[in-house]
């Protein structure tokens, strides 16, 4: 095992990660397994550094003294070489002036030679009349003069070629200009090297979701899962043991009119998004320091959509058309999300390096296509990822739930919807309205700041959210379940607890990220990190590491309980949600460990439980 070079408490120079700058640090500990030194900077930041990134202070002082003493010694050496020991000072001054005179004479000689050459060339270009005049004055004719001048030209050219060689070998440009050129060249080369290093370092090295093979399978597995769940809900006995399911005819899964209705819905929401209503806010800084602007008008879009749906119902439009063609709508949404993903990947190939997603820049087509190659694809000011995140799918989820409620009333000849259907619609309506009301909070999530916009988010936003999240309402249409008022009251209390944890935890995090110095947040304690951000260790984030996920899971359970316990199918959402959040939690853990280093380890020691207190 190699010996450690620096002792605990020793003051050394540590390189700041990602730069070439060294700062004074103090060694606090050494890990024998990873061979990393934990050092503390003057501002209190603690980082783990390799031994190669640490230098002793004496080496920096030695280099400084050596560089400062080198120039005088060179000057004294050059002076000692240029003078004779026995020659007096005046003689030395005279010799220097003589050398300057010699240089001036040499320049004059060069100028005279070049002038003579120019005169000679000019004489060749004289008109014939001038040549005849010269001949009558006893001068040689043009033929004789050409032969003579060739010899003269050859004699004149020889010293001139020598001069050119001398000029090439010894540049007559001032030394300062030469130095500036060299500095500009070296600076250009330095920045080119930095760009090359940044381009290589920006590549995604750690692949998620099973890498290339896993993402390739998910592209087919996710649509198949949606179709399987919807087909199961249509069965009289939606048991998981009923396998294989009777598959419908392929032509029954597609209808051009349904696809047209879906496109109309998508572009209607795009129109609402473009309306100049609502405030404009800035997102978090990107890797290049730039902040994108977003218009916060999701709640207004929801109100306009509600008004449009109300108008349709007033004019006797049968909204349960959604229930009758639910499979066709799911297939249409899946086809549109695939086409959108292909468009997004093609346009991302022309995007600059700094606009690519940190998690979707692996260089592998399938992986980048699935996770999203470009971070924030925009058409002008229209942000495609931000629009799809909340508008068509999330608001569509509420519209689908309402269609299921009306279908239940029509199919079972009810004047009022069942209590179970009311609970499911109310709980999920609250969740959607909360997301739209707190729309600005989504700008701090990993979906916006880290993940690219590819098949994963396009399919998730446009297909998975509206058609899988509405699974309980779709199930209740074909399998009505009676719920007593005491049971309903208990389910309502459970949902309120989950919602309170979810909303208060997210509010704490978002407010702290926006303005850590807010006096209203003075009661919150945090661990400072090298990135300048803080890790909350009080409030909900001191209870578990991901309290918002805990609230999500409790609410998901409350949404499924009104469906009873006859089948496990309505609880698919709970199982899926737990698996999704555990995966996201592991993702967040890995990302935060890389980002915050030692500070994240200290946070994990303070807050040991991830999602479930005293369990996980």
TrEMBL record:
Location within or outside the cell: Cytoplasm; Endoplasmic reticulum membrane; Nucleus inner membrane
Domain Tudor: start-end pairs: 4-62
Region of interest: Disordered: 53-109
GO biological process terms on file: cholesterol biosynthetic process
GO molecular function: Delta14-sterol reductase activity; DNA binding
Lineage: superkingdom: Eukaryota
Keyword Lipid metabolism: yes
Biased composition (Basic residues): 76-95
Transmembrane intervals: 209-231, 256-275, 296-315, 327-346, 457-477, 483-502, 523-544, 564-583
GO cellular component: endoplasmic reticulum membrane; nuclear inner membrane
EC number, as in UniProt: 1.3.1.70
Name of protein: Delta(14)-sterol reductase LBR
Organism, scientific name: Eudyptes chrysocome
Gene: LBR
């Amino acid at each position: 095992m190699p010996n450690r070079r620096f002792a605990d408490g020793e003051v050394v120079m540590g390189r700041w990660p990602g730069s070439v700058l060294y700062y004074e640090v103090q060694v606090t500990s050494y890990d024998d397994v990873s061979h990393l030194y934990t050092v503390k900077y003057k501002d209190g930041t603690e980082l783990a550094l390799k031994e190669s990134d640490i230098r002793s202070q004496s080496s920096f002082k030695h280099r400084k003294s050596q560089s400062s003493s080198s120039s005088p010694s060179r000057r004294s050496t050059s002076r000692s070489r240029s003078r004779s020991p026995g020659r007096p000072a005046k003689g030395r001054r005279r010799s220097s002036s003589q050398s300057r005179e010699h240089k001036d004479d040499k320049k004059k000689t060069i100028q005279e030679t070049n002038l003579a050459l120019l005169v000679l060339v000019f004489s060749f270009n004289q008109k014939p009349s001038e040549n005849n005049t010269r001949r009558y004055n006893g001068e040689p004719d043009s033929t004789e003069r050409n032969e003579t001048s060739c010899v003269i030209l050859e004699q004149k050219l020889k010293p001139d070629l020598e001069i050119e060689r001398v000029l090439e070998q010894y540049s007559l440009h001032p030394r300062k200009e030469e130095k500036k050129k060299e500095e500009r060249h070296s600076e250009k080369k330095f920045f080119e090297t930095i760009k090359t290093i940044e381009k290589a370092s920006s590549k995604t090295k750690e692949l998620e979701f099973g890498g290339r093979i896993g993402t390739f399978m998910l592209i087919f597995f996710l649509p198949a899962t949606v179709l399987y769940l919807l087909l199961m809900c249509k069965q009289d006995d939606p048991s998981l043991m009923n396998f294989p399911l009777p598959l419908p005819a392929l032509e029954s899964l597609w209808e051009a009119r349904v696809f047209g209705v879906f496109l109309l819905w998508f572009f209607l929401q795009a129109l609402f998004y473009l309306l100049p209503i609502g405030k404009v806010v800035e997102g978090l800084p990107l890797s290049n320091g730039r902040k994108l602007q977003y218009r916060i008008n999701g709640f207004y879009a929801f109100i306009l959509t509600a008004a449009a749906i109300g108008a349709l119902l007033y004019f006797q439009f049968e909204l349960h058309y959604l229930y009758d063609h639910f499979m066709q709508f799911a297939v249409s949404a899946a086809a549109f999300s695939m086409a959108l993903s292909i468009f997004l990947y093609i346009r991302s190939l022309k995007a600059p390096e700094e606009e690519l997603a940190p998690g979707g820049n692996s260089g592998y087509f399938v992986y980048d296509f699935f996770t999203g190659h470009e971070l924030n694809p925009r058409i002008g000011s229209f942000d495609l990822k931000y629009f799809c995140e909340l508008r068509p799918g999330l608001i569509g989820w509420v519209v689908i739930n309402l269609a299921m409620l009306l279908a239940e009333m029509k199919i079972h000849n009810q004047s009022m919807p069942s209590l179970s259907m009311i609970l499911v619609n109310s709980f999920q309506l609250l969740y959607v309205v909360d997301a739209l009301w707190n729309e600005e909070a989504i700008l701090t999530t990993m979906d916006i700041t880290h993940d690219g916009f590819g098949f994963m988010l396009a399919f998730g936003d446009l297909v998975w959210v509206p058609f899988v999240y509405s699974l309980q309402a779709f199930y209740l249409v074909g399998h009505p379940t009676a719920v007593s008022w005491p049971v309903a009251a208990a389910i309502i209390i459970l949902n309120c607890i989950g919602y309170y944890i979810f909303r208060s935890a997210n509010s704490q995090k978002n407010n702290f990220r926006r303005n850590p110095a807010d006096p209203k947040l003075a009661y919150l304690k945090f661990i400072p990190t090298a990135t300048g951000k803080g890790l909350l260790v009080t409030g909900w984030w001191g209870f578990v590491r991901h309290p918002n996920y805990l609230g999500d899971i409790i609410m998901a359970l409350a949404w499924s309980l009104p469906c009873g316990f006859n089948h496990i199918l309505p609880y698919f959402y709970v199982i899926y949600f737990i698996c999704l959040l555990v995966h996201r939690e592991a993702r967040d853990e890995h990302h935060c460990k890389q980002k915050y280093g030692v500070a994240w380890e200290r946070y994990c020691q303070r807050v040991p439980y991830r999602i479930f207190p005293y369990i996980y």
